[in-house]
Write a structure and sequence with these properties.
Its cofactor is Zn(2+). The protein is of the alpha/beta class. The chain folds into 2 domains: 187 residues, Quinone Oxidoreductase, Chain A, domain 1, CATH 3.90.180.10; 143 residues, Rossmann fold. Helix content is 24%, strand content 25%. The two termini are 23 Å apart.
């Protein structure tokens, strides 16, 4: 038996979002039915609205969600009806070598969270399957999710804040704390002061980075970054950002440079901002087919001589069940800022306008509330 729910669906790449109704199945096995209360508008979803990235249409996007558990499958044991939960796009089996090592983000058996081909789809419309995005599909008033992708949080956390814990927070802060393991007295550069980058800023401040340098083209976002612990602001309109960072670091460069914009030019600039033994972290979702060229020969660019590195980061190397409650607790203690991440709360029917603000960089995060 299925239930009709409201959703923002993408039917084809030229039409964008369509407000409609879809059918959602009952939970089976380890599945959890969540009444969605809030869903963040992450820039990454836009790539799947306008580009063919291998996921069949129609599709319901959305991967930052928070809500209330309203029904559970017979094998669920980690959450219960009535729990407030946050969803995350990282499924895991909990039993492979990566999971046992604490790297659930690299689980070798992520397919265990999906339904088998002989089972009905979780989401459908008029009897035809609708693709579920990264196991979540948060742009709907209910979501049917594998229990490895949800975690209970305190009921004191407002839903619009809690939703951001599942992607923007764990990705940005996790890039600093988990992927890079930034230490006190190290210098950090963050390119892109959006809903993900701001969390890298506050995580860097939290661990006692010597300098937290933020680069962005939007003066308002640069000023917002100061609320999260930025110590120095770099506007490319004022001159070459590489030269500005070089001046701020006394010619030494940074220990860690995080690229969150997903654009090629800032990524190239990021590799030029690192100092000796420094690392550039590719966090923002780049365009399909994008490549990065950098000098590796000794004496040219210092990549070998100075032991510089480039590393990809997926979802801040998140361990879902550990990290999301941790950041929620930091916020409750007043040591983490979720409030200023939420720029606006909007209705589901306003998703297109909400994403227009995201595209022009006018907001940190718009959040749909139900």
């Amino acid at each position: 038996m299925t239930t009709s729910v409201r959703a923002a669906m993408v039917r084809n790449f030229s039409d964008g979002f369509e407000s409609t109704s879809v059918e959602i199945d009952r939970p089976r096995g380890r599945e959890v039915l969540v009444e969605t209360k809030a869903s963040g508008l992450c820039h990454s979803d836009l790539h799947f609205v306008h580009e063919d990235r291998g996921l069949p249409l129609p599709i319901v996007l959305g991967h930052e969600l928070a809500g209330i558990v309203v029904e559970v499958g017979p094998e669920v044991n980690e959450v219960a009806v009535g729990d407030h939960v946050v969803g995350c796009s990282v499924p895991s089996c909990g039993a492979c070598v990566e999971c046992y090592s604490g790297y659930r983000v690299n689980c070798l058996n992520q397919g265990v969270a999906a339904r088998r081909p002989d089972e009905p789809p979780r989401i459908s419309r008029n009897g035809e399957p609708v693709t579920q995005f990264v196991g979540l599909s948060g742009f709907a008033d209910h979501a049917l999710v594998h229990e490895s992708q949800v975690v209970a949080v305190s009921k004191d956390v407002p839903f619009d804040r809690a939703a951001l814990l599942g992607c923007g927070v764990v990705t940005g802060a996790g890039a600093v704390l988990r992927s890079a393991a930034v230490k006190p007295m190290e210098t950090v550069v963050v390119l892109g002061a959006g809903g993900v980058g701001l969390n890298a800023v506050q995580a860097s401040a939290l661990v006692g980075a010597r300098k937290v340098i933020v680069v962005d083209l939007n003066p308002a976002k640069l000023q917002l970054a100061t609320k999260f612990g930025a110590t120095h602001l770099v506007d490319p309109a004022d001159g070459d950002p590489v030269e500005q960072v070089n001046a701020l670091t006394g010619g030494l460069g940074a220990d860690h440079v995080f690229e969150f914009t997903g654009a090629k030019q800032p990524l190239v600039q990021a590799t030029a901002m690192v100092g000796r033994r420094g690392t550039t972290y590719v966090v923002g979702l780049q365009q399909l087919g994008e490549t990065l060229d950098f000098a590796v020969a000794p004496g040219i660019g210092g990549t070998i001589n100075f032991e510089k590195g480039v590393r990809g980061v997926r979802m801040g190397s998140v361990n879902v069940k550990v990290d999301i409650p941790y950041y929620a607790e930091l916020d409750a203690q007043g040591r983490f800022n979720l409030d200023d991440l939420v720029s606006n709360t909007i209705a589901l029917d306003d998703i297109t306008a909400g994403y227009e603000a995201v595209k022009i960089g006018a907001v940190a995060r718009n959040v749909i509330t139900f």
